[in-house]
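Here is the promised in-class demo. Please do not try to memorize the tokens; focus on the logic of going from shape to residues.
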């Protein structure tokens, strides 16, 4: 009567574990089963799409490629003399620099050069005075 109320049988199997078996002896560097937080790169593109996806025209890219590297499978297309459909963009021309803007830039440059020369003279005279002061104390 003085024994335990729940008697444990002698043939108790070990508890079931779903953990992977331990690595063999001497195997000091096991491979992690999942990447840790140190593997996360916030600058990496997680979407799987190319980073320039949606920022360029694939048809234009293809046309430029075939223009640079023509294929013998497709013969070149020659103009027929008919007008091309769609809006014709005028050729780009660099706008001429404005005379007033150029004059203002030159005036500012002259002013900066004048101030730099003035500062250089001031520093030069200061250093000469400092050198003569140091020489005078040595005597």
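The designed amino acids, position by position:
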């Amino acid at each position: 009567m003085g024994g335990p109320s729940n008697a444990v049988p002698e043939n108790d199997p070990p508890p079931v574990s779903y953990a992977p078996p331990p690595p063999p002896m001497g195997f000091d560097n096991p491979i992690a089963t999942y990447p840790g937080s140190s593997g996360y790169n916030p600058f990496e593109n997680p979407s799987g799409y190319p980073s320039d996806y949606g920022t360029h025209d694939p048809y234009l890219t293809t046309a430029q490629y075939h223009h640079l590297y023509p294929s013998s499978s497709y013969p070149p297309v020659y103009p027929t003399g008919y007008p091309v459909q769609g809006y014709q963009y005028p050729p780009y021309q660099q706008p001429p620099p404005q005379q007033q803007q150029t004059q203002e830039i030159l005036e500012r440059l002259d002013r900066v050069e004048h101030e730099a020369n003035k500062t250089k003279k001031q520093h030069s005279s200061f250093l000469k005075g400092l050198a003569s002061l140091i020489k005078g104390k040595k005597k």
